[in-house]
Design brief:
Blueprint: E1 4-6, E2 13-15, E3 20-21, E4 23-27, H1 31-34, H2 37-49, E5 54-58, E6 77-80, E7 83-89, H3 97-110, E8 114-118, H4 138-152, E9 158-163, H5 171-187, E10 193-196, E11 201-202, H6 203-206, E12 216-219, H7 229-239, E13 244-246, H8 267-278, E14 284-287, H9 290-293, H10 314-327, E15 335-336, E16 352-355, E17 359-364, E18 370-373, E19 382-387, E20 394-400, E21 404-407, E22 418-424
Parallel strand pairs: 4-5, 4-14, 5-8, 8-9, 9-10, 12-13
Antiparallel strand pairs: 1-2, 2-3, 6-7, 11-12, 15-16, 16-17, 17-22, 18-21, 19-20, 19-22
Keywords: Hydrolase
GO molecular function: hydrolase activity
Domain Apiosidase-like catalytic: 9-333
Amino acid sequence: MKRLYVHPKNAYLMWEDESPFFYLADTAWELFHKLSREEAEQYLTVRAGQGFTAVQAVALAEFDGLSGPNYYGRVPLHQKDGRYDPLLPDTEGGNSYWDHVDYIVKAAARLGLFIALLPTWGDKYNLKWGKGPEIFNAENAYQYGKWIGTRYCEEWNIIWMLGGDRPLENELHHQIIDAMAQGIREADPNHLITFHPSGESSSVQHVPDRQYIDFHGIQSGHGTNGLENWRMLRRTMQTEAKPCLDLEPRYEDHPICFKPEYGMWNCDDVRQNAYWALMEGVCGHTYGNHCVWSMNTQPTDYYRYCWTEVLHHPGAEQMRHVKALRLSRPYFEFRPAPELIADDHAVMAHQCAARGESYAFAYSPLGQPMRMYLQFLCTTAVKASWFDPRTGEEQFFAVVPPRETLFAPPTSGKGRDWVLVLDVLETS
């Protein structure tokens, strides 16, 4: 079975042959709950073709995921004494709820996609908001974790994602997550585990110093604080030396600050979060479209489109370029390089840089000039190119000496972001 590992330097993920794995996920929380098998195959085929490497989906879904049936009229759990019981999964017959989950997991595997599988949405243990109901305690969380871990331990394309957008606010919440993780890990010692936190927080705040956490995640969220996802990522990686990424940044077509009257986040906003994160040395990134994660079929002011209409929206198509840029140079030596750039800009204009041994990237989210200190990169000349995040095209424009240099991107303004690519030239 193919396996993922954490790289020995603790920053990135890799395959067992030590080749790099860049976690580029799409968000499809309601995938198992709402789509037919044919629709799921359609969705997965598109995302695989766009270069995604993973899909995030929930077994016990948020939108009435216990009592609301899936496409085939089945619910995930049977009831006992009038309550949905995590120890009574619907597995009877050839078209059970969990048979449907099995089918989609295997369909994703055929396309080379991981399923980042949340065993449950967070409202099933902390009904801070949502439908719920709360059904977990420490004992049944352990048993459910062991059951679902056993069911999928032989599927190569599983990454476990605990949490589910609710905070851990008391000892019981922590006991539930720890117990579920224990059950999963006992049944499945080979797949990686992470944690999806609530909005504008990090998994390191909720599950610090947990041996079962292989890589951390933040949710920078859908408000204006999401403009500083790079700060949250930096703090998380400074707190614990584990890989990290933004598991829920601003979604394309999502109401700004959850208010449709403010407008919608678009592909320009999505790209900013992705490249800001990249320059912090993350192990990947997550994209989301508001109408896809929900698998919406009835457009409203809050969900503007049907999910099938937005599969090819610009943000989704442009995410492949993030992965391509990151994989284009030596991978595991990459690290943040604030020493290479003068960043004195306001939040939305935050400029940042990262480097390897003989190359560097620098990001200007609004196409504003970047003052670079090339003398800290090398002592020889540097080949400079512009990388267009909208098209993935890289265009050489100059050879420059290793000194302080001001680089002006080809265009500027909102939606005119650019990556400066610097390759050190060997001496002749």
